[in-house]
Design a protein that fits this description.
Blueprint (H helix, E strand, L loop, with lengths): L18 H20 L11 H12 L16
Pfam family, one: DNA_photolyase
Keywords: Chromophore
InterPro entries: Crypto/Photolyase_N_sf, Cryptochrome/DNA_photolyase_1, DNA_photolyase_N, Rossmann-like_a/b/a_fold
Amino acid sequence: FDPRHYLGTHCYGLPKTGPHRLRFLLESVKDLRETLKKKGSTLVVRKGKPEDVVCDLITQLGSVIAVVFHEEVRETL
């Protein structure tokens, strides 16, 4: 969870993630974790800036072969 997603927007100061969206996100992550657990896997969930958290996680795990990600498209006004 990137803390920057829960701050206000640049233009109007409105939250990027409101309470309903946050609840949906938390429920989705919980459901995904439970589904993976039933299949003998797990889900790693961290809070922080992805550029820091991913680096720390790779260091902690030590045997990472690949990292896959996507970049959020940002609108320009």
